[in-house]
């Protein structure tokens, strides 16, 4: 058969989690917490099911959740969004990314992605007849080089996909990045797809630079987020997309036939959590900053060189003092012989820089897990 994604294999997250299970390794590979979200949230989910909220939700999402998202967005980013026409609840950020791409990308269109980038972007673009044009982030600090990005624009460029805080590198945009993005999008009339799933995980007092803070960008952007990250419930797969009315209308045409709607009880529970306990997401930066610092302290004196982490819950580490193997081979060795699973950074690149020796560790883990992993990593 003629296949649609000939270059695509099984996602690295699945590959590494399977290896971790097989070798009984500490799994710092696939990004997910090994602890649960707030007890009140889980109780609200059970209550929603007990109260009979078990049938299809409205196609666009439970109104109470869309309203809670709109209020939170205005409070945090000063951006008024209409809960009825501009917010759509999705089955995780993955669905939102796919639906935004499917709504906008036509056959032959180009979409700029910044490498390293999350692995679902390119297949979604290709399945919709588009082509991902990869531009590397600056390898010294993983910041965007706006001149290089501008040079990659062609008459076929339809959209640019950005991600801050960044998976896998932990880099975050500053306000100047938003201005540069806005200038580029204005000049070439581009749509923006902004993956902000780690919006509440930004460190050292920095502000999350949501494109929703920038009026001009908000007018041409699809902004995607995920409750999996914010409420430690990656398995619930609830996310959302915020976009101006006309873009949301197109987005919903795809969403209604992709999934139609998302698990109803979780939507009621999340609506309640956002409204009754905003402190949960306001405390998230400090919560994860403590984990970042703990993990880095535990690895002091190891052979890994730790790169700076400005946001998200991943630590990128250079292992060149330990091995000259490529990063996939190193991760396979590490999970089998070292007892720790990590993710090779080359998995996020079209063309990984030659000689780059970087792996990603997820630090969204209990202290005991971080301690056990660090002890194994220090012994190498
Ligand atoms: N984008 C990025 C950058 C992510 O890290 C993830 C989760 N790993 C997703 C999207 C997908 O989020 P969800 O699990 O809500 O589909
Ligand atoms: N987003 C998670 C990560 O980066 C993985 C999600 C998945 O396994 N699809 O590790």
UniProtKB/TrEMBL annotation:
<keyword id="KW-0663">Pyridoxal phosphate</keyword>
<dbReference type="GO" id="GO:0030170">
    <property type="term" value="F:pyridoxal phosphate binding"/>
</dbReference>
<dbReference type="InterPro" id="IPR015421">
    <property type="entry name" value="PyrdxlP-dep_Trfase_major"/>
</dbReference>
<dbReference type="InterPro" id="IPR015422">
    <property type="entry name" value="PyrdxlP-dep_Trfase_small"/>
</dbReference>
<comment type="similarity">
    <text>Belongs to the class-I pyridoxal-phosphate-dependent aminotransferase family.</text>
</comment>
<dbReference type="InterPro" id="IPR015424">
    <property type="entry name" value="PyrdxlP-dep_Trfase"/>
</dbReference>
<feature type="domain" description="Aminotransferase class I/classII large">
    <location>
        <begin position="25"/>
        <end position="377"/>
    </location>
</feature>
<dbReference type="InterPro" id="IPR051326">
    <property type="entry name" value="Kynurenine-oxoglutarate_AT"/>
</dbReference>
<keyword id="KW-0032">Aminotransferase</keyword>
<protein>
    <submittedName>
        <fullName>Methionine aminotransferase</fullName>
        <ecNumber>2.6.1.-</ecNumber>
    </submittedName>
</protein>
<dbReference type="InterPro" id="IPR004839">
    <property type="entry name" value="Aminotransferase_I/II_large"/>
</dbReference>
<dbReference type="GO" id="GO:0016212">
    <property type="term" value="F:kynurenine-oxoglutarate transaminase activity"/>
</dbReference>
<dbReference type="GO" id="GO:0005737">
    <property type="term" value="C:cytoplasm"/>
</dbReference>
<dbReference type="Pfam" id="PF00155">
    <property type="entry name" value="Aminotran_1_2"/>
</dbReference>
<keyword id="KW-0808">Transferase</keyword>
């Amino acid at each position: 058969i003629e296949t649609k994604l000939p270059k695509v294999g099984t996602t690295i997250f699945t590959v590494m989690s399977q290896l971790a299970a097989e070798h009984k390794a500490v799994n710092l590979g696939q990004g997910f917490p090994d602890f649960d979200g707030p007890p009140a949230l889980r109780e609200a989910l059970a209550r929603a099911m007990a109260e009979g909220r078990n049938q299809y939700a409205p196609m666009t999402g439970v109104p109470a959740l869309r309203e809670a998202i709109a209020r939170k967005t205005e409070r945090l980013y000063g951006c008024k969004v209409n809960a009825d026409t501009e917010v759509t609840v999705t089955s995780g950020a993955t669905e939102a990314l796919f639906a935004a791409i499917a709504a906008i990308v036509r056959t032959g269109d180009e979409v700029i992605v910044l490498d390293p980038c999350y692995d679902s972007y390119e297949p979604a673009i290709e399945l919709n007849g588009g082509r991902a044009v990869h531009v590397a982030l600056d390898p010294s600090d993983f910041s965007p080089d706006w001149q290089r990005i501008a040079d990659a624009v062609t008459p076929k460029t339809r959209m640019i996909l950005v991600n801050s805080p960044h998976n896998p590198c932990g880099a975050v945009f500053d306000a100047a990045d938003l201005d540069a993005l806005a200038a580029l999008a204005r000049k070439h009339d581009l749509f923006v797809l902004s993956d902000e799933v780690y919006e509440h995980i930004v460190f050292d007092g920095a502000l999350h630079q949501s494109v929703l803070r920038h009026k001009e960008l908000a007018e041409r952007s699809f902004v995607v987020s995920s409750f999996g990250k914010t409420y430690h419930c990656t398995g619930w797969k609830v996310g959302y997309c915020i976009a101006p009315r006309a873009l949301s209308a197109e987005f919903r045409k795809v969403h209604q036939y992709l999934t139609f709607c998302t698990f109803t009880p979780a939507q009621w529970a999340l609506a309640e959590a956002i409204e009754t306990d905003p402190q949960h997401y306001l405390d998230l930066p400090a919560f994860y900053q403590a984990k970042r610092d703990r993990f880095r302290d535990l690895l002091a004196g190891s052979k890994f060189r730790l790169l700076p982490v400005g946001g998200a819950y991943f630590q990128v580490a250079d292992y060149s003092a330990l091995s000259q193997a490529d990063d996939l081979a190193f991760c396979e060795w590490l999970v089998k012989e070292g007892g720790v699973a990590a993710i090779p950074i080359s998995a996020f690149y079209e063309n990984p820089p030659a000689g780059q020796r970087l792996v990603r560790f997820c630090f969204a883990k209990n202290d005991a897990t971080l301690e056990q992993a660090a002890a194994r990593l220090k012994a190498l």
